[in-house]
Design a protein that fits this description.
Distance between the termini: 7 Å
Number of strands: 4
Shape: elongated
Largest sheet: 2 strands, parallel
Structural class: alpha+beta
Strand content: 15-25%
Number of helices: 1
Radius of gyration: 14 Å
Order of helices and strands: EEEHE
């Protein structure tokens, strides 16, 4: 089982020059090829639809963590 980790980017400076120090929101997705199986943890909600996966990536692409297996 391959364990892929994508590190989060460093906090970006805001317009005022200070840094956003809020803790990052973490998402976990398990993807299995040929029959996509996804489990994304978003706070307390568990999203298992591919549309939910796409929405999370589209809205929070810089804060998504993937754990994949073949």
């Amino acid at each position: 089982m391959a364990d892929l980790q994508f590190p989060l980017p460093p906090d970006r400076p805001t317009a005022g020059g200070s840094f956003d120090v809020r803790p990052p929101i973490m998402y976990q997705a398990e993807v299995q090829q040929w029959g996509i199986k996804c489990a994304i943890v978003l706070g307390r909600a568990l999203i298992t639809s591919i549309d939910g996966v796409a929405t999370a990536i589209r809205e929070h692409g810089d804060r998504v963590a993937f754990r994949g297996s073949k």
